[in-house]
Design goal:
- The structure holds 2 protein chains of 2 kinds.
- By secondary structure, chain A is an all-beta fold.
- In chain A, 0% of the residues lie in helices and 52% in strands.
- Chain A contains no helices and 11 strands.
- Chain B is built from no helices and 12 strands.
- In chain B, strands 2, 5, 6, 10, 11 and 12 form a 6-stranded mixed sheet that branches. Chain B has a 4-stranded antiparallel sheet with strand order 3-9-8-7, with no helix packed on it. A two-stranded antiparallel sheet of chain B has the order 1-4.
- Chain B is globular and about 40 Å long.
- The chains are: A mainly beta, B mainly beta.
- At the A-B interface, strand 4, strand 5, strand 9 and strand 10 of A face strand 5, strand 6 and strand 10 of B.
Chain lengths: 114, 117
């Protein structure tokens, strides 16, 4: 089975802190994604990556950056956390097919910024 | 712009009844894919079913089927013989086109389904 692991289920940080959310997948997938999930808004794409050291902005990249130094690991970075970044963060991975490219998700990290 | 709309924030259904979750989409691209995911209270998104825009038949996976009406731009999820374990949040999503950026999915707002015993 595909396994996408997010390092923390729950995280509490203070305003202004630098926050790292880590995601690791074990299926050698080229694509990796970071979403945030807010009630009534569904999932919104923050950043995604097609390959190592490659990244592209999603729909809401402001206030975030990412790092992909190894194929299996995709990190989301909040350079200076703010209260409006309190949310559920979901990581996903997929193969680069153009048809049924199912995205496999981790269990999510619920981040609270105080 | 591509968009997915789920108009039912919440639904309550009796156990063993069939349930239909609505999803409409908007895209000008002739090639696209539609997905349904389930999110239990544990938080993990679970893939349920996929429909390609050129697929001739409606997709089915066990108790899940997708009622694909291309002209109406709708892709409703049908769950037959609902079970208590079906209680979860359900998301409809769309893959856009066949270019490299088509790796991305656009998600709807979600529908919270509650199955009553």
């Amino acid at each position: 089975d595909v396994k996408v692991t997010q390092s923390s289920r729950y995280l509490v940080k203070r305003t202004g802190e630098k926050v790292f959310l880590e995601c690791v997948q074990d299926m050698d997938h080229e694509n990796m994604f970071w979403y945030r999930q807010d009630p009534g808004l569904g999932l919104r794409l923050i950043y995604f990556s097609y390959d190592v050291k490659m990244k592209e902005k999603g729909d809401i990249p402001e206030g975030y950056s990412v790092s992909r130094e190894k194929k299996e690991r995709f990190s989301l970075i909040l350079e200076s956390a703010s209260t409006n970044q309190t949310s559920m963060y979901l990581c996903a991975s997929s193969r680069p097919t153009l048809a049924k490219n199912i995205q496999y998700f981790g269990a999510g990290t619920r981040l609270s910024v105080l | 712009a591509q968009k997915i709309t789920q108009t039912q924030p919440g639904m309550f259904v009796q156990e063993k009844e069939a349930v239909t979750l609505d999803c409409t989409y908007d895209t000008s691209d002739p090639s696209y894919g539609l997905f349904w995911y389930k999110q239990p209270s544990s938080g993990e998104m679970i893939f349920l079913i996929y429909q390609g825009s050129y697929d001739q038949q409606n997709a089915t996976e066990g108790r899940y089927s997708l009622n694909f009406q291309k002209a109406r731009k709708s892709a409703n999820l049908v769950i037959s013989a609902s079970q208590l374990g079906d209680s979860a949040m359900y998301f409809c999503a769309m893959r856009m086109g066949q270019h490299q950026g088509a790796q991305k999915l656009v998600f709807g707002q979600g529908t919270r389904l509650t199955i009553n015993p």
